[in-house]
């Protein structure tokens, strides 16, 4: 019987290679791809001007009734769901690259935002949330009298 030096990392390395193969198969499926469902994040643009902060989120195919916008503890949260159309059966798809299911994005807000006057509109699949800035209080000038 031959003496073989035991290498505890050999089994670990083999398991890691198997996991990598499984993940590659799951992420790179082309034939018979499953519909991509689950939590996804819509891309956003955020910009600021002198009067407000504006957040624009791409939400094509999301019903406006499915969009929930909340502000809690200086955090703006966008939630919703893009539902998959049942008109076409899953087995009839050749490729699915869009995501379906629920989404959620959260953004920390500066203390300068007037949370009472936030407005949201949706046009051509783009949600625009306008966060107006509060009127800044100007420092009060105190004159010193000379006696």
TrEMBL record:
Residues 39-147 form the CS domain. InterPro entries: A-crystallin/Hsp20_dom, CS_dom, HSP20-like_chaperone, Small_HSP. PROSITE patterns: CS, SHSP. Transmembrane segments: none annotated. It holds the Pfam family HSP20. Belongs to the small heat shock protein (HSP20) family. Residues 35-147 form the SHSP domain. This is Heat shock protein Hsp20. Gene3D superfamilies: 2.60.40.790. Keywords: Stress response. Coiled coil: none annotated.
């Amino acid at each position: 019987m031959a003496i073989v030096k035991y290498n505890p990392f050999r089994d670990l390395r083999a398991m890691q290679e198997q996991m990598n193969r499984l993940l590659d198969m799951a992420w790179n499926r082309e034939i018979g791809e499953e519909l991509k469902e689950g939590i996804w994040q819509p891309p956003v643009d955020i910009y600021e001007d002198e009067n407000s902060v504006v957040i624009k989120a791409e939400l094509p195919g999301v019903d406006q009734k499915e969009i929930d916008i909340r502000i809690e503890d200086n955090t703006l949260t966008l939630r919703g769901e893009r539902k998959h159309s049942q008109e076409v059966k899953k087995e009839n798809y050749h490729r699915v690259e869009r995501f379906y299911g629920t989404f959620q994005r959260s953004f920390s807000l500066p203390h300068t935002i007037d949370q009472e006057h936030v407005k949201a509109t949706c046009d051509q699949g783009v949600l625009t949330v306008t966060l107006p800035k509060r009127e800044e209080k100007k420092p009060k000038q105190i004159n010193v009298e000379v006696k």
